[in-house]
Records
---
Amino acid sequence: MDIATEVRENRVGHSRAAAKRYRWSDSDREATSHRQRQGEAFPDTPEMLAARTARLVQRNGLPVEAALEATRTEALDRPKMYERILGVAKDLQAWSFLPRGARAARTVARIAVRENGREIPIGTGFLVSPRLLLTNHHVFPDAGVARSAVVEFDAQVSVDNTPEVSQRFLLAPDAFLVADEALDFALVPVVPDATGRPVGEMFGWNRLSVQTGKLVIGEPVNIIGHPSGRLKEISIRENRLEARLDDFLQYQTDTEPGSSGSPVFNDQWEVTALHHSGVPRTDGRGRILRRDGQLWREGDGDDAVDWISNEGVRVSVILKHLAALPLDDERLTYLTEMGPESGLQNLTTVRTTATATATASPSTDGRSASPSTDGRSAPLSADGLSAAPSADGETIPPASDAQAVLPAMNGQTVPPSEDARSAAPPQDTRPVSPPQGTRSEPPLMDPRSVPPPGTRASVAPPGDGRSEPPPEAWRSVVPSQGGPPVEAGVRAAPLRTRTGLPAAPGAFGGAKHLVFLHGRNHEDCVPEEVRRNWAAGLNCGLTRAGLPTIVPADACFPFYGRRLVDAMRPLEALQRSPRVAVGDPVEAAAPAAGSTRRLYEQLIVEAAARAGLPPARAPGMEGLSDAVHDGLSWLADTTDLDRLAIAAVFGDVAAYLDDQRVRDAVLDCVLQELPRSGRMVLVSHSLGTVVAMDLLTRLDPAVEVELLVTAGSPLGLDSVYERLISGGPYRPDRVARWLNAWCPTDSVTIGCPLSDRWQDGPDEVPVVNATGRAHDIDEYLAHAEVAQEIGISLCAPAWTAPHG
């Protein structure tokens, strides 16, 4: 069977499966239609409407002024308010809609196969990283088809409606190919141009996001592709989402067979789905019907089919599937290039033990197959990699060939390995202009942040007073995909304490100290685990910056979480279990009446005003005032934290600043764990940045603060810095260097950049953290521009300033 025929038959099979799903979802579509007839423009769930509205506001998909104007004239409940805002976003588009669409279109390519001396168009694909092209499995059912394919960018007409000169590239399925028949997707690298430049640098690429909120039922979708192999065409806006299934989206739009593999965009040009099939009308036995009502037969052609809808694979489902694949380091590198919102950038690579490798049963081709838990050899996967099941049933990716690890820092400058030297700067999520000599439209992403294959976290060598890591196992120290960052390679379970942790003796030569100062909500945490999480994020950033990584035990970790809660109990400041709170959980998270309560409300109102909320009424006497409720809602809608989290953070900050007993309890607890002399690198987060500023007034005079790092800090609010022991906003005299990292979607950092208010303020580093983790410390530390300042300070030789 020739390739074109195989692709066509595979496509027909997917069309039949799509028709079955369409019939199964009849009741959902009927319910949707009924709600639309009742006047609902977007008949989706309240949760999806809220998520979509928040995403639009956070990403400037809709001007805040337009949202206010649409909702200020009458009292609306939340679903009606969301629907009103979404209606404005649908009907009015910013000028940038057109150039952003043109920019997205450049990432789309026509796919053809070379067969019998001819090139036959078989589908569409689009770039999702500097190197990877995404299309359908039925377009590339195996590596052989991909090897014979040519992808053609700029196969389109110009603004003068004359054909442009297209650019053609081959694919590299032998280097990397991930495909799934059920989800009908294939991911394969495009061969770089003759100079070695990745195609994403020339045409841009699309950031895929695993997050929800990209599209709701009733919203329009836009598709760019090569229907029937023609030059690039766009189906725009007069299409709408009909149904959202577990793995697929169904939508009304005009497409043709060559559109297989096209991106399905929302109006902000975010990819929401991978188009894979039209939905044909079928009879009661599932047979495809023609437009004249007769049975469709193979020879009738696709044009004769009575197409009634279309179907695409949800991007979030594809990304979750990719995150679960057992891949080695080299293949993981391809996935980690797909941007921070993909959820793939910080995949943890788990190393199998040397013992398991030594005892693995040899396979017939000379490769080792890892033994399974029942003593049998685990079968080799299709790519020749063994997948060893872990004790809990999860598949552990096999180790690739061993590479040297970076030496730990011990107070001397250690040159990084070749892999670390080649580490690129972190992902810049803003569009950037292409290099000189390429097209004028900027690509969607700056692809310079490709993590090098084989970059590793370091394991400290023995002999310096620290614990020797087990020789038979080690893992890279990076944030994990499914939960908090972890660092493995330690055989015994850690001692689970609730007190602070000193640094290991001799860490960084003994004269230099790395201190992690945590924020709120740690009262129930295990300090060892929290310290490992901080080190995991920092090591990720250090690796990206090409610097040696650290061992968690080398960091001093003062722990005041329990002391803070105990000191606040007399204030009845916080309900520590919002899930069991009655009434309004946000009210339960607020401090009780009194000066702390007034300061808390002042912080919320000030932060909301800084975020653009118009002035509101003064605080009331009972319960949260309208101004505070409005402020919390505004901050939640315009940043990445929910109302309860925002209330809890500012509640703790208010308690610390307003009550001297609470402040003294926290500072005394931290001071007990700190070194009494030497050079200090102090890294602080959230409430910990406020504690750090006060701490600087009480440190032992023999301590020199070489670097202060504040991340996710509220120090930019007047109500905060005016209540510091130093009186702020003045740069502390004893701090040699100060770096402040903040994220625009982190509501705690609304007052940033600090340099706007602080005299001789810090060096500012704005970063873009992953959606849903805007305030997380491991996200902040994973950025190379943050981590490199810490790494440079730790690598520099320690010295003691002369006294007297």
---
Amino acid sequence: MPIRPRSILATDLDGTLLPLQDDPTHIADLQTLLENLQANDVQVLPVTGRDRAAMIEALQAFQIPAPEVAICDGGTTIVVRNDDGGFDYLPDFQTHLEANFASFATDDVSYLLRDLVDLRFRATEKQNQFKISYFAEAKTLQATVATIQSRLRDSGIDCDVISGFNLHWGEGLVDILPAGLSKAYALQWWLDRSGNDRDQVVFAGDGGNDLEVFLAGYRTIVVGNAEPEIASTVYAAHRTGNTLDRFYLSEARATSGVLEGCRWFELVPPEKRESRSSDPLGAVPVSCNATHFNIWAPYAGRLAIEKQNGDEIQRFRIQPDEDGYFHRTVRGIGGGDRYQISLDDRVSRPDPASRFQPQGVHGPSMVVDHRKYPWHDADYRGVAKSDLVIYEMHFGTFTSEGSYLAAIDRIEELVSLGITAVEVLPLAQCAGSRNWGYDGVQLYAATENYGTPDDFKRFVDACHAAGIAVILDVVYNHLGPEGNYLHDFGPYFSKRHHTPWGDAFNYDGENSEAARRFVIENAVYWLREYHLDGLRLDAVHFMFDDSDQPILRSIRHAVTDFAGTVDRPIHLIGEANIYDHALVSPTDGTAYDAIWADDIMHAIYSHTVPEINLAHRHYAGASDIEEALQHGYLHTGPKVTRIDSEVRRQMHAEGDFSFLPSLICGLQTHDCVGNHPHGSRFHHLTSTETQRAAIPLLMLYPSIPMIFMGEEYACDAPFMFFVDFGDPRLRRAVDRGRRNEYPHHQWKGAIAPSHDDAFANSKSIQIKDPAIWQWYRDLIALRKTWQKESLLDWKNLSVVCDPARSLFALQYQAPTGRPKFVVSRFSAPADELPPLSLQIDGEVLMQSSVHRDSPTQLTLQNQAVLIGEGTWNLAAGQ
């Protein structure tokens, strides 16, 4: 039997192998690490910026056994242990450097930098023939390094400048070496000389002087205290090189991070733990070559994991426990591997909790290691509920490319507009290449249509860097019709309840506990692994549950528990569309943070385009706008009921409208636009002037405002309903079903949802109106100003309307200063409304389609709006 090559842990010392500030956990983990490395005959090779004496001092201080060899002085010296236990410089390496870097002149470099006051020479023993070492002011380190590099470049001196921080003294460090000489160079030279191979090496480090080694192709441990930029650079290099299996980003810092990484790369044994059914569902990698699986499949007598190896398939049997969970850690499967679940040797299916489906809903699942992504949002503190200005978007149509990464390029535009949160349509894997997202069948898998899971993380990271929260739409009432294989695994679906779109989840029937867990765990999964700021639960009135602990309440508890572990607000939103007192009113901690409330929007539609009804509820035009603005809603749920004054008085004792800040209201949503046969937007059906007049009533209302993508610039493109099912029967059924659901609409010339053009024509990148974009921007800015003044409080609001004149006004009594008002006048564009004169005592802040007759008298035509400070009233005789 051939002898296995000896593994080598090459490791930086300060900030990596050495405990930070005598941390007791680090000290204990160092002892564990050293014992395990010795037991597994792993060679420890220090690769440090310290000189020989300082390295020996550090090893002795922490009782680290003397290594056989060490790379010191940032790669400019190599020392080997002698028979007396001391260390000698390796003369062969010195000779090699003199032959290959003879042109490096320390005196020339020192003279060039002599006047830089932020630089101080370190002690003589820190200098050598191939290294100049300085202390530098920590606060100006980056600028100092830039100056050094500029001078060296201008003088034609080819050097590498390596900078970092001394963790003990809090000072900057600058080393100047000949170009190309580094820790990585020295390590490779030693490997070649000793006859070792780079595949034997795992390198652990934390700082800038480790970067060359990180990028040299070794298996790499980046400890948790590394700067985010370092982690990102190393991650990006491995991702580009398709070598993420050789990259590990530790959660723990320094010594503990090295131990964690050594366990990952199996240099030392993993922590002992038993497999349990309570472990996370799906596939979770536990080392570079082992993954823990946990699948609930009570319908299966036998289950196996089928790993794809090219044309071959490896099978790994898993035995069930008494509750129908198949769980065990499988060696031979790691991150990036593709697999399917074999049920009774009869069919092979994707994992119900698959993290990624690179070949779509019918293809194999992929093991995803979420810990590899180097997040940059440690300082992000989220967006408060009161500051939310939500932008609803669909990744596939938000950009021409239709990808997570392409969407990053438009974040700056959203920031400029004033958006503070994006709400993205569902991302669970759907059939085909185009879908709104509500036909998802793999709830844990971010769809491959827009990129990889890490691509979505990069989008979230970029949003957080810009101060924008990310909220995800999730669907927990049904699964889509194609690729839904949960029926093969167990009773995930109800025998009693049904939705208009498919089988309802089994939240209250026999064996419902596991189905409930599947959904509850999914909610927390998205928040945790993708650093999301909230979830919007689709159509909550179809999440049927007659148990004593409704699923909506259980999700609320789980999300609340998770929110207690992070430093940002987590927003849990229910799509009720109408007012649901049970969702927003409880005082026992189970209230949702917000609900969608569409009554104001549909009332506006019924007044401006009365021939079109985009909801399954009746609205009566101007009078309903008045009532909806006065109370925030017209209908209650979960069973849709038009509320009367008596029920409202009982529900809101003493006129308590404290629920208003928990309503999300918009002029348009994906539903109201997409449910139109032609995907027509509000301004398509009315006019941009009508849109300008109506939107202030929502943007300056005490609720949470929401904009649907493209609305802000009166996008010329429609937003149609589109699907891409592979089954022709399903395509035909959907095409017919849309017409049957809204038979009263004008379908002549409408594009079928399954046609390619329904998606292609919906790209929101076509003709834009810059004037209305500026109007929206100014309104959002004004909203934020009024928020800071504590003006947008329901207690300050009075609604004054004259439905017969199509006049709708919001009046705010300011806590300090003069009152503020919004007066809008609009109806169907073809309506001929007589001019209406107003008297104002105050200042006009914003206006559209308003004629000033005198300093105090203004005339409002149809589609006009006046926003101001002070008081207003109708002119005499009106």
---
Amino acid sequence: MNAPEASAAGARQPVMAGLWNRGITVHAAAVTVIAFLVASIFSMTYTAHVTGERATRTIEARLERLLGTVESALKVVCYVQDRELAREVAQGLMSNPEVLSVVIRSDAELLAQLDRGTAGRGAEASHVKPITRRIGSPFSKDKTIGEITLLADGQVVAALRESDIRLALQQLALQLLFVLLVLVAAFGQFFIRPLLRISSDLKRKTPGDRQMLSVPRGHEGTELGQLVADINALSDRLADAMDESERARQLAEAASEAKGTFLANMSHEIRTPMNAVLGLARIGARDSPDGAGREHFRRILAAGEHLLGVLNDVLDFSRIEAGKLDIDPAPVSLSSLMAETGELVRARSQEKGLDLVVASAEGLPAWVEGDALRIRQILVNLLSNAIKFTARGRVLLAVRAEGSELLFEVADEGIGMTREQLGRIFLPFEQANNQTTRNFGGTGLGLAISLRLAQLMGGRIEVRSRIGEGSCFSLRLPLVEAPAPESGAACPAPELPAAQRLAGLRVLAAEDVELNRVVLEDLLQHEGAHCHFAENGRQAVDCLAQQPTAYDVVLMDIQMPEMDGYEATRLIRELAPGLPVIGLTAHAVQQERERCFAAGMVAHVAKPVEPDQLVAAIRQVVDFRLIEPRPAALPGAPVPDAASPSGPAGAGVLDWSALRQRFDGRPGLIDKLLRRAVDDYAEMPATLRRLGAEADFAELRFIAHRLCGVSGNLSATSCQALAMRLERAAAESSPECQQLAGQLADAFEALRSEIQACLDPAGGPAGPMRSG
């Protein structure tokens, strides 16, 4: 006997002893016998009843057939009411020994009645019911002219019932006895013992245990053996499922963390350059010397703000799907909303030669309650689609009141859609068909977001379309009239406040991107604040360590070298517990806001920084009654001795035309940005080559990320493209990082040389830099 068999035999002995000691087999057999006897009694009773009823029904069926044989004669008897003939028919029926009595009646009288007497009626007669049949007229089916009643002989019925019941009970008793013996013999041997053995083995198993149960002897090919095999397979699958569930849980946690990181990084990558674009557009709108230039900057600002809103929605699409996107209702000027929306798409319509018509019905309220950003986002999306899918003709944007609803309509004369296509255009990532995607592009996400936004505002979007004739999208929103706001900030082209709302405030700002420091400095000085800049969290902490009471508020960027904003804030809270710290970050997701507050920040402002939002956040956390007014110089005046750089005559690394167009009207600002780029990045080429040789992927990724934004702000597109490639390669630890780092170093050397040649054509020094 091998080891497994010996182990199995040793396990069986205590199991068998336990069976007899506990009397499981005896008890099971006794319960089985008792249950079987009770079942037998019920079975016999039921069989007797059913058999007796069957015998009774047999007699009744025979009598029914007997009546059928004399039905024609009965019709004649009852029709002519012939007593002699009726008696003859009754005697014929009584000749059948099963008939006890016959009664024939017409509608008017009794025609015949014969009876064998009470001697034939036994106790069993109670089981027999009289059989009565109506007799119809031989000439009319609906007319009844008499009836006949037969009663079966109880003794005959009783004899038949007893004979059938006796035979059925004998057969059943033999069958039950045989089955009982078989069950008693086999129950314990083939069921109880193996089952208890299996139960004992199962009790020893633990969740995730992959040890197999042994099949009871003699049951290798039986159902019980199959049960053990199924239990083993189920146990194995359960263990696999538990392992897979644990892996899935870990992957889900990692995916959730990766998703949050991706959204935070994507938000940062988009908002960082957007902060510079919108900030410089505000500077241009404020300081441009001519009205046309200011109008251009305002349009850039409006388009940028709309783009920022759309980007926010795309980045927060998971919140939209979850129904967690917030709507911010406020008074909305319908005329301004329609004008702004039309201006945002007018250039695209003009490029395609389309006639863009913006129409507002008469009698509309001047101000309505709604979320201007979300309404504009929906309308711009619908208009963009209309322009995209229209080759010639016109595009209409109209608004009117329809009952209690405000109805916006966007109609075009484009390609149109079929009924099938209309059924899926509001699904995420869906377009009319694959050909549409190839011809016109797009992700198919805009209409899905627009529909959800409309529903969140209590409205809906409807569409009508015909192939070759165009489409009409209708946005229906609740019409709620609102009073005009007291502040002029809701106007489409707001004028900056005349008063300096941060006059005398001392601000310490930590920001590592030079271009963002320029924009933030301009904003703060325009509001009357005195600002001091630190390039990272370490410098900000050092400034406060030297002068803990020198500042009224700290503006803290998050992603910075040496020390990030979170750690710097925690240290600042230890140095100056009462000094408010406001987070400025391009990470707009909720997790980043929570991290800011957890680090000790008192407020959070997302980039691109909106001046009104930043001022409101500062005034909310700073008590201006304690601020002494201190005059601050306003930025924006052109530097007298700084001529606008014209750029080299030939093509170079820097796109001078795009740079001048971006900062039109601000030559002093262009000169300032270029000089700082030359001075701040003098050592950057050597650093890139060194890090590439050392394969320092983390530092390469960080520097490439900074250079990508700087290059974009300077309109150095080739440098920007190289920086983006290097950032992606460093994130993947790609071997081509060294080659890309060398190429980016060469491109930046060429960029600095080109800028230096422009700033100092004679070859002299570029000039001193003004401290920020």
---
Amino acid sequence: MHPFELLVDELAAALDEAAAELRRALGGRPQKHLVARLSHADAPLVSRWLSGAAQLSRRNRLPGAAALAEAAAALALPYQQAGNLVAIGERIDGLRGRLESSERGWRSKAGEHYASSRTALDGDTGAAEVGGKPRDAGEGRYGSILSGVHPVDGRDPPDAGHPATRGSGVADPPAALPTPLPAALTSFVGRERELAEGARLLRTSRLVTLTGVGGVGKTRLALRLVEKVADRFPGRVWLIELAELTDPSMVDRAVASVIGVQLNAHEKPLEAVARALGTRRVLLILDNCEHLLDVTAALASTLLRAMPNLRVLTTSRQPLHVDGEHVLPVGPLPLLNQDGGTSAAVDLFLDRAQAVLPGFRLTARNQDAVVQACRLLDGLPLALELTVRLLRTLSLDDLLDRLGRRIHLHGAAGAERAAHPRHRTLRAVFDWSYELCSPDERKVWERLSVFAGNIALPDAEAVCGDEATHDVFEAIAGLVDKSLLTRADTEGRTRLHMLATVRLYGRERLTASGAEADATRRHRDWYTSLAGRAEAAYATIDQGKWLIRLGEEDDNLRQALSYALTDDGPPATAGLLDGGYALWLHWIASGKVGEGAHWMRRVLGRYPEPPGDGLAQSWCRAQWCAAFLFHLHGDREEARRALDRIEPVSHGDGEGWAAIRAAVHQLRGLCALFVGDFAQAESHSRAALRAGDQRASMLTDQQALAQLGLSASARGAGEEAFDYLHRALELSESRGEIWHRSYILWTLAIECTEIGRTDEAVSLLWRSLDLKRRLGDRLGAATVSETLAWALAKLEQPSVAALLLGAAHMAWQHAGAPQMWGFTHLMASRDRNLRMIRQTLGEERFQREYRDGERLGLARALDELAPHRS
């Protein structure tokens, strides 16, 4: 049969299947029950959808994924049934796209083929019934296709521009926002069966879990699988790595953070994710779920119910036990090859051995030893990877001899019998690796287990070193050589990574040694001290360097705060208050305002009052930090309450109290400015400047001067505004800081725009954006880009302005923060300029440019505009 005819047969089968699913969902109710709930379908169209393949003889709109997703929502179907319906729609979209590209006038030819096929099936009578009853979608030639036959070329149907992603008002997030999938550093070996089955399951199921013992290669398999199916998900593939998370309350926020979504003040993280991604066809990978099983199960279930086009792929040591979950067990690599060649386990051994010893080959002499080594290691990829590295030191025979004795000691005769056999085998590998380490290497391995994520080499040396450890660097180098640590270079600096299973083994050893409390204390003290050193540089030329450094240490800063929250001792309390406060600028400049607000709520919930006179100032600064974050996150009332709590405590005359009072006045001035109370804004800002004694790292004087300038600008007092803003700029430049300077340049540009100096404004705005992008300040860049769009519109570039507004809009939408931070004066200006651009372009052209900006995302839009900035 001609390939075109085969595609038509598949499409006919899919249409019959969709009709059968819709009829089943209606359950005998009249079709008007569905028509009344659909926004883009009338009764005749739905009637044709219910007729299945007969639609091919007509020219009506076929029911694709978007239409069937809307139907599923209208009928309130359970998410598994809804997922099946949408999967059929995806198949229809893919087949329609392939037919469109293969034949001109394909609908007429498809209808002719369908009619002739029905004649051949039904005989010359053309009967529409079989055996006196209506033909069922599962009967005849089309029924064989419905039973699971895939496209004839064996590949998944290519995506033909999924309708659900068009016109939905939600575009792909900017390319810079999501974390890219990690690139493989070594070749992928075997797993053909699991890859084929995983691809099939992701076509037919909405939740797929890869299960298996630690070290079996679930994450690597998941990433390889995603490479094969990524074209099915035009809405994007997202990887959420959960291995480093220990706090269940942070899982929802981790998902929102990776996707680039921050939360409105009263919005739940998963609501924000569902709002941002909407009906797009998305694949979410939740990696290493076993230690957060309950919360991950609830998360997956919630998102699947809220997002009809979502697929979820998880890796875990055990299933989530959620309705609709399909489990794909991942076992060790096969030790035997039924075709007579080498097995996947042997192939992996050889591949990694050749990396260690380039001349290593499988020969008749060593073949039995290689196979025996793979058998003793049960074909576990992690065990094989670790063991093969020892060929640097041992011959293959010596390796096999030691390995055999090590496994025997921890096999049936001496293992923990209650443990799963795979766990006993992997533990044996780690036990053996541990015994091969020097005393210093063992101690460093144990202490490194309290870290999270990647570790900067100097941090590892500082936390792991003491008088009893002779040479920490040598111990770290030994662990790298034994593949218990891996090295990754970031911007030319060395960082270390420890596998989760290796870390867990180290943590068990640490706990057994009785040194866990000391190790977590050392970690906590180091990272809260690191935050303090960064805070001391906030008003210096090193500000940018420290903000970038803090961004690299996010995982361990969270870990340190978690450790501090579980310790009631005075050092932990001081570290928690001072460390939390010290991160204020990091959380704002990195766009993690919501996360910062979350942590400060926990800190202040733990200490609603000052925990002693000696920590009163630390407590007040933590309240100020919390108030700043609450305000920017849109919770003005909670910000006001935090500032109110400071005032009764801050009446002291000693050193440091005046700086706290000044900072409170500055922040009250900012809050008043945002709601248009210019009198109060200026009163508090002037009070902040009069305080005299100020803490430079809180940037109080700069912010107060800029607030006075912005208030004067809003009042129409241009000369006064320029005076205040230039004073703030001079102060910033004298200190060398760049975060607040970028906002001062932005504020100057606003005033230049208001008085007609638009070319100067554009120059200032590009200078500001250069600083924002150096810091990775995405929300700051969105703020400045909005103003740049207004200025470009005044320079008769309305198309560029509309595109930039669309790009900036997506940054705000995914952040969850109020647009333009909720500043009422700027929002009013934005609305005026938006109306002007719409009128200039006309609504149709404006929408086209605006949507193009949404699709590009802010980072790419700015990259494309940068060459034309002058």
